[in-house]
Amino acid sequence: MKFFVDTADTAEIQELEATGLLDGVTTNPSLIAKSGRQFKDVIKEICGITKGDVSAEVAATDFETMIKEAHELRNIADNVVIKLPLTFDGLKACKQLTEDGTKTNVTLCFSANQALLAAKAGATYISPFIGRLDDIHMDGLELIREIRVIYDNFGFETEILAASIRTPNHVRECAIIGADVATVPPATLKALVKHPLTDKGLDAFLTDWAKTGQSIL
Ligand code: E4P
């Protein structure tokens, strides 16, 4: 499973990129607003940090303007992926951009039928939102399961990019179900490495090693 980080904070991206475990970045208008920076400047900087796919979302809601914005964003760097909302205009733009050889990420997916439409439109990625479904007492992970079954039934190549991830458990379950990608906020991504028994075990090993008085180097 690929790991994308879900942020427009370039310092966080740089730190995680240094681990060698990052496969890409997703942003959305809310994350750009939170950064307080110019959208295109941030995307350009992120594309300079990672060679992985970087999702940049259009702001338009009509097909013609979406295509114009997509061309503008695509020109920023080769690894820009155009993020489009799950509407008929977004799907129409997805189909055209895919035919032109541009990678796409269809976002704000909350149902299996929406995911089916995005795959038919040739989306590179579909972004089902787990946390926001959980927030309204629905089962976000169940949606990932359904999409996995449907895509496998028909051999769709659209990658399932599990989004709106809030907990390490979401990441684990997505891996078990077989999501292709998880886009994870920096804090949750960093939490994946933590286990109290790892910390306790390491402390004990270091204490015992010190008692030996030895040095490896
Ligand atoms: C990523 O592409 C999505 O925009 C993001 O994961 C949404 O997460 P949120 O529901 O925590 O805002």
UniProtKB/TrEMBL annotation:
One of its GO terms (molecular function) is transaldolase activity. GO terms for cellular component: cytoplasm. Its EC number is 2.2.1.2. The active site is at K83 (schiff-base intermediate with substrate). SUPFAM superfamilies: Aldolase. It catalyses: D-sedoheptulose 7-phosphate + D-glyceraldehyde 3-phosphate = D-erythrose 4-phosphate + beta-D-fructose 6-phosphate. It comes from the Bacteria. It is found in: Cytoplasm. GO terms for biological process: carbohydrate metabolic process; ketone catabolic process; pentose-phosphate shunt. Transaldolase is important for the balance of metabolites in the pentose-phosphate pathway. Belongs to the transaldolase family. Type 3B subfamily. This is Probable transaldolase. It comes from Roseibium hamelinense. The lineage of its organism: Bacteria, Pseudomonadati, Pseudomonadota, Alphaproteobacteria, Hyphomicrobiales. The gene is tal.
